[in-house]
Amino acid sequence: MNEPLLIDRSPDRVTAQLNRPDKRNAIDRETIDALHSLCAELEAVPRILILTGGDDFAAGADIAQLRARRAEDAHRGINAMAFTRIAALPMPVVAALDGYALGGGAELAYAADVRIGTPRLKIGNPEPNLGILAAAGASWRLREIVGDGLATEMLLTGRMLTADEALAAGLVSGVHAPDGLLPAAHAIADRIAAADPLAIRHTKTALRAPRDAHPAIDGDLQAELFESPEKMRRMTEFLERKERR
């Protein structure tokens, strides 16, 4: 039996590829369980996460499994809890999107901190056409990313955005040729990895905090960084390089 995730680990990042190509990476319960296991690993040893899927990121949730779910399953939030955990990981998550990112696949992408795509990208939420709603984060994460107007249209009509439309809406931050997608994701990870890991973690915490937590949370996080040895080392090196110019 194929593993639902293909995982490549290095000291500063983990790359996880959804691995159900015959189902266009439809997200089933085994994939959710694997994502939970990966989250546990990254919560214990924080690293950057790159999520990808090959020719298709994920064409949705597994419809056969969804059809069998009942009210108690909805209250358990099977997909929603996994995506919330991904969004809350200490270090940034980069989603590299090719082909279809629909339904649950789109909601997994919305949970990432950075999203990039290829010209083949189609992203959206057609759930009402199947008699359900997008309940794994789209109703609030998508609004935060693209704004109320576009998010409302997408969720009510099932409209799929092309790569260019997603770029214009800020849903993805870059569009790359398919063979350059993963290198572009790693280039983003390289820039993140070059910074102080604690400063990156605190920046993500500040970005994810509710509006009424600011500016107090910024001061609290900055206070810890101001006292850190890494801040002193990096600023000293910066000043010494400037003096040598």
Brief sketch in words of this structure:
The protein is an alpha/beta fold and about 240 residues long. The chain contains twelve helices and eight strands.
List keywords for this structure.
245 residues, alpha/beta, 5-stranded mixed sheet, 8 strands, 52% helix, globular
Present the secondary structure layout:
Layout (H helix, E strand, L loop, with lengths): L4 E5 L3 E6 L10 H16 L3 E5 L10 H6 L2 H6 L1 H10 L5 E5 L2 E3 L1 H7 L3 E4 L4 E3 L13 H9 L1 H10 L2 E3 H7 L8 H17 L2 H12 L7 H11 L2 H16 L1
Parallel strand pairs: 2-3, 3-4, 4-6, 5-7
Antiparallel strand pairs: 1-2, 7-8
Helix pairs in contact: 1-4, 6-7, 10-11
Encode the helix/strand succession as letters: EEHEHHHEEHEEHHEHHHHH
Biggest sheet layout: 5 strands, mixed
Strand neighbour order, sheet with most strands: 1-2-3-4-6
Query: What's the helical proportion of residues?
Result: 40-55%
Given the helix and strand composition, which structural class is it? alpha/beta
Which word captures the global form? globular
- Average of the residue pLDDT scores: 96
Helical stretch tally:
12
Strand content: 5-15%
The radius of gyration computed from the alpha-carbon positions, rounded to a whole number of angstroms, is 19 Å
- Give the N-to-C terminal Cα separation: 59 Å
Count of DSSP strands: 8
As residue ranges, the low-confidence spans are: none
